[in-house]
Design brief:
There is one protein chain. This protein is mostly beta strands and 123 residues long. The chain has strands at residues 3-7, 10-13, 18-25, 33-39, 45-51, 58-60, 68-73, 78-83, 92-99, 112-113, 117-122. It has no helices and eleven strands. β5 and β6 (58-60) form a beta hairpin. It is globular and about 40 Å long. The model has no long low-confidence stretch (mean pLDDT 95).
């Protein structure tokens, strides 16, 4: 049985940083494309960062403007999202998801999902 568990969310001031973690059991992160999705209040869930399974290449949505970094620790079977210079528009629920195909920032491609974690950015 596959489980993805997010951690590291919380409240941060504008301009601050947070690192989200996505720990996996039941699958090997290195074999999957792992994507972070964000769902702002009242909006759809959007893919924002993905790490490929094959070469570990990261992909980001353009709106992040270089502020976020996705990475993987194979020894811990965990994917991270380092978020810097957080802005009020970054607030929302963050989810990690895995698929065994390729990096696509579209949620319908993903079979495995975490339960989500909340990030709040105070202005």
């Amino acid at each position: 049985q596959v489980h993805l568990v997010e951690s590291g969310g919380g409240l941060v001031q504008t301009g601050g940083s947070l690192t989200l973690s996505c720990a996996a059991s039941g699958l090997i992160m290195d074999d999957y494309a792992i994507t972070w999705f964000r769902q702002a209040p009242g909006k759809e869930r959007d893919g924002i960062a993905c790490l490929t399974s094959s070469d570990g290449r990261p992909y980001y949505t353009r709106s992040l403007k270089g502020r976020f970094t996705i990475s993987r620790d194979n020894a811990k079977n965990t994917v991270y999202l380092q978020m810097n210079d957080l802005q009020p528009e970054d607030r929302g629920d963050y989810y990690c998801a895995g698929n065994d195909e390729r990096c696509v920032l579209v949620e319908s491609y993903y079979k495995y999902w975490g339960q989500g974690i909340q990030v709040t950015v105070s202005s």
